[in-house]
Amino acid sequence: MMQGSPDIVGDSPAWLSFIWIAFTTALGLMLLGIYFIPVDWWVKGYLYMGTLFLTASTLTLSKSLRDRHEHERLVNRVKSARTEQVLSKFDT
Q1: DSSP letter for each residue of the chain
Q2: For the residues 83-91, what does the mean pLDDT come to?
Q3: What is the pLDDT, as a whole number, of residue 1?
Q4: Which of 6, 43, 72, 82 could connect to 39 by a Cys-Cys bridge, CB 3.0–4.6 Å?
């Protein structure tokens, strides 16, 4: 039988706050830097578009990696449960 559930423990509120503060600060400073750079408006538009797509693709990538990791953990837990079941039938 499986002892405890290590999956219940999550990130601390301090860590989540740090992540959000770092993300918003980095994005805000990038947007501010683009705004004040002395170039034509179309260059700024290109930089804004690049920042938007880079941010969106980074968020999508991190979500996909997290989903894949959670899927692999679930598959491993199911395999472990099946192994436990087979072993318990073998012992009886």
Answers
A1: ---S-GGG----HHHHHHHHHHHHHHHHHHHHHHHHSSS-HHHHHHHHHHHHHHHHHHHHHHHHHHHHHHHHHHHHHHHHHHHHHHHHHHH-
A2: 80
A3: 43
A4: 43
